[in-house]
Design brief:
Blueprint: H1 2-28, H2 34-59, H3 70-80, H4 87-98
Length: about 100
Amino acid sequence: MIQQQIAEMKLEDDAAKYLVYRAAWLKENKLPSQQETSMAKLFACQAAVHAANMAMKIYGSYGYSTEYPCGRWLRDAKQFETLEGTSNIHMGIIAGIELGYQPNR
């Protein structure tokens, strides 16, 4: 159902936004923020790719047309996954801090 997919996109968008707000607040207040920053970047990228994929499915074959922005959204979202560290790098940072292998700066 398209309404469910749109609701899911909205939920993930808001969750990503609040993770970014938390990471920014920690950084602004000079508190350890490395883990939260990696979590925000990782989740926001995953949410963007997921939303773009769902939009492509909703639009069907029109999603591949240059007349609609879905294809560009997917290309942009996939590109964000590699900017400022790949998803695997951020997963490693999150896990390393959680397991106590590296400090949360």
